[in-house]
Amino acid sequence: MALIKFPTKTLNTDGVNPYVNSFFDNFFNDSFVGDRLVTRVPAVNIAETDKTFNIELAAPGLQKSDFKINVDKNLITISVEKKEENNVEEKLYSKREFSYTSFTRSFSLPDTVDYSNITASYEDGVLVLTVGKKEESIVAKRLIEVK
């Protein structure tokens, strides 16, 4: 594969109107427009320990009662549907990005999961799910002596 270096934006390749390219570059690269074109779902961290799987979901500005967590066979689904209230305010915003109305994240669970040992907590804007493993799937650690 060959890497090709393109000219940087410092070179003006538009001789007719030098401001046209910079206007469209700024417009489409603006986070206000770019964020509207991308579906918003919270970021997730998944970690595995010897006895559990830990799922951390970043969802600030919500309450514990906003979350709905369902387990169906080997699929766990975390969803939020928050109805946005229309409050008339006297503020004039030049940019407004606060709106987490709804999202759904689903994760496949392995066969080693103990479905009776799933807990959830929400603190400081992070939802933490702890999914326990079955006893027979927990590998016993021991030291093997070389003879």
Question: Which terms summarize this structure?
Answer:
single chain, 147 residues, mainly beta, Immunoglobulin-like, four-stranded antiparallel β-sheet, three-stranded antiparallel β-sheet, 2 helices, 7 strands, 13% helix, 35% strand, elongated
Notes on the protein architecture:
The protein is mainly beta and 147 residues long. The longest helix is centred in the N-terminal third of the chain and has 12 residues. A four-stranded antiparallel β-sheet has the order 1-2-7-6, with no helix packed on it. It has a domain of 79 residues: Immunoglobulin-like. Helix content is 13%, strand content 35%. It has two helices and seven strands; from the N terminus they run ααβββββββ.
Please specify the SSE layout and strand pairing:
Layout: H1 18-29, H2 31-37, E1 44-48, E2 52-58, E3 67-72, E4 75-81, E5 102-108, E6 113-123, E7 126-133
Antiparallel strand pairs: 1-2, 2-7, 3-4, 4-5, 6-7
